[in-house]
Design goal:
The protein is of the alpha+beta class. It has helices spanning about 5-10, 15-25, 25-30, 80-90, 90-100, 180-190, 245-250, 290-310, 315-325, 345; strands at about 60-65, 65-70, 70-75, 110-115, 120, 130-135, 140-145, 145-150, 155, 165-175, 180, 200, 210-215, 220, 235, 240, 260, 265-270, 275-280, 310-315, 330-335, 360.
Length: about 375
């Protein structure tokens, strides 16, 4: 089978390797290093200016397992959550979940909304390189063990899921061409639409202005030619970033950077003796099936967390509220007990009736 055909069959967001290297040789040549690169010309809407490769997001100091803080924004009459997300480097769904009761398409003049910029770190991962949590539609880039940048990403749909895997960055790409997978061309043809075998760089290219080629079967972290979809399950398995972000991000990330792709709908962490929890429902509508699945994920995560941290005490009502909302906002659910009782009676507590139990305690 010809190399190009084999590649097209394997890749979800497929590129021609040879054509890609030809197009992006200035970037590929610097992939061994970091951001000290020659200036590049703009590749379209959202491309970084030649002298501006500063990330749009802040590099946050990690305090234990928590980073960042919640922010607010006062809307204008023409605002939508899609436009605010594009401008503020936030995903559409995370804005919707953080602001219940606010119309995402017509928030109105003078509405104060929450910008969800506080994060519990992903659990049981190496704080090194890129971590993508599919459940929250976010990419974490650990510049070192104590600092992180957080970006919204679009991920694969239920029908075309993104892989759960460990990978590495192979090379950065500028103005990538898209070789359309046969599965996508066939699906389009079934609807009466004929797609070309190759989409050249430009405004019609769904890969956007820049991309990072990963070692995982041709998957990419790439830009987009759409104004909507970042922070949602919309792709055929690749990871979509705003062009304004990926056009800078490719200059931060070097060849060989590790990439961990995980699915953690519930995250728990400690910060200054406090226990924090994030619970992420998968979509805007919160079905009973999704709620049950989130409760199961929370139960598993809490049991593992308490086994690792037996000195914490958790609050049932706070946990119930976090699961009931499923909004992905960090919630304070407990604290580390700093002094343990030492007398024999405390080691052998008597059986207690239901009314004797602390109403806000949760034990697993």
């Amino acid at each position: 089978m010809p190399f190009r055909q084999l590649w097209a069959l394997r890749a979800r967001c497929v590129l021609s390797a040879l054509f890609g290297v030809f197009l992006v040789s200035p970037l590929a040549a610097q992939a061994e290093g970091t951001a000290a690169a020659p200036a590049v010309q703009s590749a379209g809407d959202g491309a970084a200016e030649a002298d501006d490769r500063t990330p749009r997001v802040d590099t946050l100091a990690i305090q234990g397992d928590l980073a960042g803080e919640l922010d607010t924004y006062t809307t204008h009459y023409e605002d939508t959550f899609a436009a605010i997300g594009t401008r503020e480097a936030l995903g559409f769904l995370e804005l919707v979940k953080a602001n219940p009761g606010v119309d995402p398409w017509l928030p109105g003049e003078g509405t104060v909304i929450t910008l969800p910029r506080q994060y519990v770190m992903p659990m049981e991962v190496k704080r090194n390189g890129i971590v993508i949590n599919l459940s929250e539609y976010r990419l974490y880039y650990f510049t070192d063990e104590d600092h992180v940048q957080v970006y919204p990403v679009g991920v694969g749909t239920d029908e075309n899921p993104s892989p759960l895997t460990d990978a590495k960055v192979v090379m950065p790409l500028e103005s990538p061409a898209w070789y359309v997978p046969e599965s996508i061309r066939a699906a389009a043809a079934a609807k009466g639409n004929i797609m070309p075998r190759m989409v050249p760089p430009g405004p019609d290219n769904p890969l956007g202005t820049h991309a990072l080629l990963l070692s995982a079967d041709g998957y990419l972290i790439h830009g987009t030619n759409k104004k909507f979809g970042v922070g949602l399950p919309v792709s055929h398995g690749c990871f979509r970033m705003y062009n304004e972000d990926i056009s800078r991000f490719v200059y931060e990330v070097s060849k060989g950077t590790p990439v961990q792709i995980i699915r953690q709908p519930v995250k728990l962490g400690l910060s200054n003796g406090e226990v924090w929890m994030e619970a992420h429902r998968p979509r805007e509508k919160y079905t009973q099936e999704d709620r049950d699945a989130l409760w199961q994920a929370a139960t598993d995560a809490l049991e593992a967390f308490q086994a690792k941290h037996p000195d914490v005490q958790l609050k049932r009502r706070a946990i119930e509220l976090a699961i009931d909302q499923g909004d992905g906002l960090p919630t304070l659910i407990g604290e580390r007990v700093t002094q343990m009782a030492s007398d024999d009676n405390s080691r052998k507590p008597k059986a207690a009736s239901a009314q004797d139990q602390p109403e806000n305690g949760l034990y697993f």
